[in-house]
C-alpha cells in the first residue's frame, strides 16, 4: 500500500546496492557528490527529502523485513551493516549531507550536494539512498521552470512598462493534472516560489509566506445548471460583487463560444463595470487563440478593455505561452489583457 511506502527506509534503494558491501574492498570512508550535468537549475526540495529520510530510526524489525524482501529477489541482504547502525548508532544512519541553500541557482556541472559517512566503516551508506536523494530533480525542475516563466514576465513587464499586476498573468491549474499528490505538492510549492496566480489550494498550507492568489470562476458543471447561460454569467457577476470580490472567470464554450463573444460580451461587460467587477473570459476548446483575439476586438470596440480580459488554459506550456503572446502582439493585443493557465 502506498501509505506504507516509507515505513522501511532500508528498502528505498536499488537492488544492486545489496551486493556492494561484500563486493567492495574497503568501506571505511566514502564521499559522493550530486550534480545536474545537463542544465542549470534552481535547487528545491532536496533538503526536505533528505531530512525526512534520515530522520527515520532504523530498527531490527526493518532489517528482518529487508532480509525477507531480498530473498524474494534471490538476493542476500547486508544485515550485518544495518544491525551495526541499530546497535552502534541508535538506529540513525551515520552519514552527513551538505548542500547548497534551497533556492540556489546551480549551473550545469556544479555539485549541489555532497554525502559522506561520519563513522568509520559505514562508507556504503553514503550511496545507499542516492536514488531517493535524486528524486529532488522533480521539485528542482518545477522550480526552475517557474523561475524561467517569472523572468519572462519580468522582461515583458520592463519592455512594455506594465505595472506589478502583470506578474499575476500566468496561473497554475496543475493540481488535477499531476500523477500523484506528492507530485502536486512539489510542483505546487515550487510554482509559488516565483509565480503568484494558482488554483493549487493545498499549497496555501505549505507556503504560508508566499504571495499567491486566485479568483472566482465558473466551470462547465455550473453553467450546465442554467437553461440560459447568459443568466449564469449575470449571476456570476452579481454574486462575485456581493461576495466583495473583484474578478470572475467565465468559461464560454459550454454551448456556443462565438455567441458569448459576439452577443453577450457587450452587455456582460457593462454589467461588470456597474458592479465593480472584472470578467475574464475563458475559451476552452476550438481555436482558443482566435477566440481570444475576437474577445479583445469586441471589448475594444465597446470600450470595455478595463473590465474584460481573457484567460487561455487549454494545452498550455511555457513555449506555448510565448508563441501565443507573439501572435497576440502581432494583432495589437496588449499582453496585460490576457492571462494564461
How does this structure look, described?
One of its GO terms (molecular function) is nicotinamide phosphoribosyltransferase activity. The protein has 341 residues and is of the alpha/beta class. It folds into two domains: 2-137, Alpha-Beta Barrel (nicotinate phosphoribosyltransferase); 139-340, Aldolase class I (TIM Barrel). 44% of the residues lie in helices and 13% in strands. It has helices spanning 20-23, 46-54, 60-72, 79-88, 125-128, 130-133, 137-160, 181-194, 203-206, 220-223, 229-242, 257-274, 288-301, 318-330; strands spanning 31-35, 41-42, 95-99, 105-106, 111-117, 171-172, 197-198, 216-217, 247-251, 278-282, 308-312, 338-340. The strands form four sheets. It has a five-stranded parallel β-sheet, with helices on one face. α3 (60-72) packs antiparallel against α4, α7 (137-160) packs parallel to α8 and α12 packs across α13. The longest helix is centred in the middle third of the chain and has 24 residues, at 137-160.
Amino acid at each position: 500500500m502506498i501509505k506504507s511506502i516509507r515505513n522501511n527506509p532500508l528498502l528505498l534503494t536499488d537492488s544492486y546496492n545489496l551486493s556492494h558491501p561484500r563486493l567492495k574492498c574497503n568501506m571505511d570512508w566514502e564521499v559522493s557528490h550530486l550534480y545536474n550535468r545537463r542544465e542549470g537549475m534552481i535547487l528545491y526540495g532536496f533538503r526536505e527529502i533528505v531530512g525526512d529520510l534520515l530522520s527515520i530510526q532504523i530498527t531490527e524489525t526493518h532489517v528482518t523485513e529487508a532480509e525477507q524482501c531480498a530473498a524474494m529477489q534471490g538476493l542476500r541482504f547486508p544485515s550485518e551493516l544495518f544491525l551495526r547502525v541499530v546497535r552502534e548508532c541508535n538506529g540513525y544512519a551515520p552519514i552527513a549531507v551538505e548542500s547548497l541553500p534551497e533556492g540556489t541557482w546551480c549551473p550545469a556541472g556544479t555539485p549541489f550536494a555532497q554525502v559522506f559517512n561520519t563513522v568509520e566503516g559505514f562508507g556504503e551508506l553514503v550511496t545507499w539512498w542516492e536514488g531517493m536523494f535524486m528524486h529532488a530533480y522533480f521539485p528542482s525542475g518545477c522550480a526552475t521552470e517557474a523561475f524561467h516563466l517569472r523572468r519572462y514576465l519580468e522582461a515583458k513587464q520592463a519592455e512594455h512598462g506594465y505595472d506589478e499586476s502583470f506578474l499575476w498573468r500566468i496561473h497554475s491549474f496543475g493540481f488535477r493534472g499531476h500523477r500523484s499528490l506528492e507530485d502536486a505538492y512539489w510542483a505546487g510549492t515550487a510554482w509559488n516560489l516565483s509565480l503568484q496566480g494558482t488554483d493549487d489550494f493545498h499549497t496555501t498550507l505549505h507556503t504560508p509566506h508566499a504571495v499567491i492568489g486566485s479568483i472566482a470562476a465558473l466551470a462547465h458543471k455550473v453553467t450546465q445548471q442554467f437553461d440560459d447561460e447568459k443568466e449564469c454569467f449575470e449571476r456570476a457577476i452579481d454574486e462575485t460583487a456581493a461576495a466583495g470580490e473583484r474578478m470572475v472567470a467565465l468559461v464560454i464554450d459550454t454551448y456556443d463560444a462565438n455567441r458569448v463573444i459576439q452577443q453577450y460580451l457587450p452587455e456582460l461587460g457593462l454589467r461588470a463595470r456597474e458592479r465593480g467587477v472584472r470578467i475574464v473570459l475563458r475559451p476552452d476548446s476550438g481555436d482558443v487563440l482566435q477566440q481570444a483575439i475576437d474577445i479583445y476586438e469586441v471589448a475594444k470596440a465597446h470600450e470595455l478593455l478595463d473590465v474584460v480580459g481573457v484567460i487561455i488554459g487549454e494545452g498550455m506550456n511555457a513555449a506555448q505561452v510565448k508563441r501565443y503572446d507573439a501572435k497576440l502582439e502581432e494583432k495589437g493585443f496588449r499582453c496585460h489583457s490576457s492571462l494564461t493557465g
